[in-house]
Amino acid sequence: MASLTAAFPNVHFRVSIADTDTLVERMLKGAVDLAVINPVPDDRLFYRHLLIEDLVLIGGPRSDLSPTHAVAFSELVKLPLVMPAAPTGIRNTLENAALRLKVAITSRLSTDSMQVTKELVESGLGYAVMPLAACTSEVEAGRLHYAPIREPELTHQLGVAATAQLEPPREFAAKVGILIREEVERLTASGVWPAHFVPSPSWDPNIPEAQTH
Predict the structure, then answer these.
(1) Which of 20, 108, 117, 138 could potentially form a cystine with 38 if both were Cys, beta carbons 3.0 to 4.6 Å apart?
(2) CB neighbour class for 21 (10 Å; exposed up to 12, middle 13-18, buried from 19)
(3) Residue 170: how many CB atoms within 10 A of its CB?
(4) What is the pLDDT of residues 85-133, one digit of tens each?
(5) How far is 212 from 152, CA to CA, in rounded Å?
(6) pLDDT in tens, 167-202
(7) Pick from 146, 136, 109, 111: which is nearest to 125 by CA?
(8) Hey, CA dihedral for 186, 48, 86, 71, is it positive or negative?
């Protein structure tokens, strides 16, 4: 936001926080112009990948999870999980992995709030799967523990998206998309955001090939 407000000092930005499904719905209704979301198979959206994050298993401060000891997915599914409520994103990744391995997931609770998820896990009511960047401060404070996931390793993709019916000028939207990419590249290169940046052509909603598939 600092980069955007510096580049466009006369523009008022409204930040919306929601899951991918909700943000897509708001974009299609014209309530949101640009969004950083998981990939979705919707030809009404222009989409460019930004990054790939490794997903980790998180537990409370009394759990024995350690970043030096990976947890197999077959063991992860036996734990009482706090699952995302939205069907896309992390929940979809978990369910697809379980389907491929022919195992059932033990889900104790579900919520559409990342913050509530972390609080439930910290209180000992379950475990959760999320990117490490989503819980770095809690891990550093000792409020949460985490472990890598293996067999298989799980990843999480994010990209910047818009619809063809943009209200702002397309040139402005393209510049915002470029600034977002530059900021993500800087954060991932510095290690502040533990993720893998995905280089791609400049994001431009005028380019039909930018549609997600």
Answers:
(1) 20
(2) middle
(3) 13
(4) 888 889 999 999 999 999 999 888 999 899 999 999 999 999 999 999 9
(5) 25
(6) 778 888 889 989 999 999 999 999 999 999 998 765
(7) 109
(8) negative
